[in-house]
TrEMBL record:
GO terms under biological process: amino acid transport
Protein name stated in the entry: Glutamate Aspartate periplasmic binding protein GltI
Record keyword Signal present: yes
Gene3D superfamilies: Periplasmic binding protein-like II
Residue ranges of domain Solute-binding protein family 3/N-terminal in the record: 106-335
Organism: Photobacterium marinum
Coiled coil: 25-87
Keyword terms of this UniProt record: Coiled coil, Signal, Transport
Length: 410
């Protein structure tokens, strides 16, 4: 009898959990309904059986018959349950995003409206930049083709809603990782592809050489950014006054600065260097030496899909490990002959390969072959081979004095 009660309890719990899940498909509802009616059936049988055993006059063989009948029923129900369609809960590790991406045939990547070095359309209208190349790396990992990306330009204010609502599969848009964003917005940061910090840019004619001299300044800043918040902290903490002049896009912010609507422009330092280059006379402005915040920029995914989270995270790690092991887009084919176990695992010849991520075994090979290692991507987009000429600095690998570090492929 105890066994029966345990089983009813197990089925009841399952039915309760299923009724609480939000998948809501017709199949799931049918499973829930059938489980509920089975519980009812079993409860009735249990009641009958208990009455039977209470009646001392009944023979022990009748009781045994009842138990046998119930056990048979349980066996039948167990069999049916095993054959019933499986219901996935929200915390499931198998991800909907990979399935969606495979079905649609491209990765929907949220990028900026245009920020040189990170995500910016070139003269031919092709998207370029460090974040754009990261979108391409995820397409190479999942679809085996880096060109299978649909770029969705998003303003600072639109970006998280677009990710939460499923409008984009991935956000790669110079976005700062912070506690609030990582915990309260239904999104997760999958790593850092550029360590940045907030700076100030002023016209030389202002005669200011340090941020500490900015008391009373009017400052052009973009809405919905960490920039806006850091600015308030910096001035309030130092009891300095300022007037924020707020714009919703980078283009408008720069125009405001150029047109003299403010004395100062503030944003991530990498962006200041990029935007300065596009001014009619870059020599007329200077970037002040102070960095007032930490801006770790990285790719963002929706919460609740750990498979997709892992894919995005390990795509970045593949690029970093490739740099560390000296594997580039040019040398990766030759590396197939390498005996180095680290190299063999990184390009999917040995080791865990793609199984745990739900990807093909050559996923990381495709990332390196088609996009390159982290250094190749960095140099091409923001580094010394690009107009921005940013030095690696903190963005160098850990073994080269920077803080870029990836867990091992093993
Ligand atoms: N990293 C900061 C700032 C990001 C940001 O959006 N910066 C502006 C200022 S340059 C930008 O990229 N604008 C591009 C656009 O408007 O599309 C954040 O995540 O809040």
């Amino acid at each position: 009898m105890n066994q029966t009660i345990r089983f009813i309890f197990a089925i009841s719990t399952m039915a309760f959990l299923l009724s609480g899940c939000d998948n809501g498909g017709a199949e799931d509802k049918a499973v829930i309904k059938s489980l509920e009616s089975k519980i009812q059936q079993l409860e009735q049988q249990l009641e009958q059986s208990e009455q039977a055993s209470a009646e001392a006059s009944k023979s022990s063989s009748t009781c045994a018959d009842n138990i046998k009948a119930l056990e048979d029923k349980i066996a039948t129900l167990e069999k049916k349950l095993a054959e019933a369609p499986k219901v996935e809960t929200k915390s499931s590790t198998s991800g909907g995003t990979l399935d969606k991406v495979l079905k649609q045939g491209y990765v929907k990547c949220g990028v900026s409206n245009g920020l040189p070095g990170f995500s910016n359309p070139n003269d031919k209208g092709e998207w370029e930049g460090l974040d754009v190349e990261f979108c391409q790396a995820v397409a190479a990992a999942t679809l085996g083709d880096k060109s299978k990306v649909k770029y969705i330009p998003l303003t600072t204010k639109e970006r998280f809603t677009a990710l939460q609502s499923g409008e984009v599969d991935l956000l790669a848009r110079n976005t700062t990782w912070s506690l609030h964003r990582d915990s309260a917005l239904g999104v997760n940061f999958a790593g850092v592809n550029y360590y940045d910090g907030q700076g100030f840019m002023v016209k030389k004619s202002l005669g200011v050489y340090s941020a500490t001299e900015l008391d009373g300044a009017s400052i052009c800043v973009q809405a919905g950014t960490t920039t806006e918040l850091n600015l308030a902290d910096y001035f309030h903490f130092r009891e300095m006054k300022y007037t924020p002049i707020i714009f919703d896009t980078e283009a408008k912010t720069v125009k405001g600065f150029e047109a003299g609507r403010c004395d100062v422009m503030t944003t991530d330092q990498s962006a200041l260097y990029a935007l300065r280059l596009n001014l009619p006379d870059p020599k007329k402005v200077i970037v002040l030496p102070e960095i007032i915040s930490k801006e770790p920029l990285g790719p963002v995914v929706r919460q609740g899909d750990s498979q997709w989270f892992n894919i995005v995270k390990w795509t970045l790690y593949a690029m970093l490990n490739a740099e560390e092991l000296g594997i580039s887009s040019v040398s990766v084919n030759d590396m197939k002959n390498s005996n180095d176990p680290n190299i063999r695992r990184l390009i999917g010849l040995d080791g865990p390969k793609g199984k745990g991520l739900g990807l093909k075994d050559d996923w990381s090979y495709q990332v390196i072959k088609q996009v390159g290692n982290y250094s190749e991507s960095f140099e091409r987009t923001v580094g010394m081979s690009s107009p921005l000429e940013v030095k690696r600095g903190v963005n160098a690998l850990w073994r080269d004095g920077g803080i870029m570090y990836a867990p091992p492929f093993r």
